Amino acid sequence: MDHQKEDLINQLTELINGVSGLPECQSMSKRMYSNLVRRVKLLSPLVEDLKDSDVEVGDDVVSGLELLRIALSSALELLKSVNEGSKILQALQIDNISLRFLNVTEQIEDALSRIPYNKLDISEEVREQIELVHAQFKRAKGKMESPDVQLVRDLAMAQREQDPDPVIFKRLSEKLHLRTINDLKKESLAMHDMVISSGGDPQECFEIIAYLLRKLKDCAMTENPEMDALEGDKTLIKHRSPVIPDGFRCPISLELMKDPVIVSTGQTYERSCIQKWLDAGHKTCPKTQQTLLHTVLTPNYVLKSLISLWCENNGVELPKNQGTCRNKRSGAGGSDCDRAAINALLTKLANGNLEQQRAAAGELRLLAKRNADNRVCIAEAGAIPLLVELLSSSDSRTQEHAVTALLNLSINEGNKGTIVNAGAIPDIVDVLRNGSMEARENAAATLFSLSVVDENKVAIGAAGAIPVLIDLLCVGTPRGKKDAATAIFNLSIYQGNKVRAVRAGIVPPLMRLLKDPGGGMMDEALAILAILASHQEGKAAIGQSEPIPILVEVIRTGSPRNRENAAAILWSLCTGDVQNLKVARDLGAEEALKELSENGTDRAKRKAGSVLELLQRVDAVDS
Known about the structure:
Elements (H helix, E strand, L loop, with lengths): L2 H18 L9 H12 L2 H9 L6 H26 L2 H6 L1 H20 L10 H17 L8 H12 L5 H10 L5 H17 L6 H20 L2 H7 L1 H5 L21 E3 L5 E3 H9 L18 E2 L1 H14 L24 H13 L2 H17 L1 H9 L2 H8 L5 H14 L3 H9 L2 H11 L2 H14 L3 H9 L2 H11 L2 H14 L3 H9 L3 H8 L7 H11 L3 H8 L4 H10 L2 H15 L3 H9 L2 H11 L2 H21 L1
Antiparallel strand pairs: 1-2, 1-3
């Protein structure tokens, strides 16, 4: 067996050992996690027999084993993320996680089905075991884990009600295995990792996680008062000198932030430090050196909440004040990047052969993803027009690199205009229509990023993007569908694009997504339908798809945001339509709407109240 094949066997061994060595899972994904670990462990005898065999294997065997290596690598990555990630986030996104386990299971089963076992020098006993394992993976294909109905209900009530019953949090602490102070500290650390990996721009769900974590901690303290005494012993904790996460430090003072605020570039600073910077006459963002569009400082409440929680869990007292803020960046030295290296890459983009262009575009893609300084440098060096030219490359990989590099560059607000002015929109739409699946996904994400600027919404719609985004919404991977949906939603804020979307036939696929809770696209489908329902053509198209039964069900059992959007759609459909009102009434909408009008979001309360008024008028006419 040559070195290449030996390396492949060794990699398979390492992956199986890596999976076998993972600790027991204590989250909502425990059953899926345990089943996958158990099945992967059973593949070990196959690899051991292959390692001991002196028989040369053919390319078809190597190809099958390479597919298995890729699948097991995905499995290990998924298992680690589940084991180390936030338990609360997993519970909130259990449908998405179930889908990821399903995809990995299908990957492994496909790999096992492509290995020609009759050409392998393995024992009969091992062959029988592998056939059994393969059969287990085959049975597991297409089977989504059934959700824990009680958990889903408790999570919804914990977020929805103003003063939830403590019993709800008691049940959640048991279900999520967040019973002790150590459990809660691990959960808090998982949150910190998410904040840092998000680049200092926490997702909306972090606020929900922070709220639930605080409530679960209160519950733990109530159940075990002695924890309070243990946590009160700050001297023990202080000796451990906890490391402050980078995402919690002010980029100017490098100290823990107590009042984080966001500037126009999206960077977060300690209020007193950035204010001193502005008062000194600076017009740029200290970290990115971008010109500030305005000097409004927006409080970063989510990050502030996470910092407070971290301090509480680590016995760190928030600073009373930040004292003197010194600018750690001496002078106006510009961005921290390797301009010479970037210029060398641009030379290859402009004048290199196909392979050099592909490699250079790939390197720029990675550099643009890495940090904000690189995004500024790459754009200033003139890369954007060259990357736009490569969108028309006949080489699919070069095209993928180019569109993804533009996506990463577009994160910088100033670069959005440069990309559009370089004539990128029609070419990005063409990639969305004809590129590889990865290129199409990233093209959709790029269009979403560019559509944040209002005038770009008009140009993107006029370039024919919406029908192609709808196609990706129907046939894309889970990630592709998400990218397409977010782009369609943002584009549909412009009235002309609502009409384009409806006439391109968006409503039927959205209704299919809405009726498939296991698909993980219900949030996006409802959000787009809510925005389309505000237009007469959108309202008519939605009404033809008989949506009221599922809308009433979402109002009754959905998440706060989904209940809000469902109520908004129902209000649009029922306004001026007595027949729809009667259908909603017969389905028991009144009771669900009354509950929503008391416990929903502010917008949900208004929409629910408006529909209730319409129902009362119908009842009055009927009587």
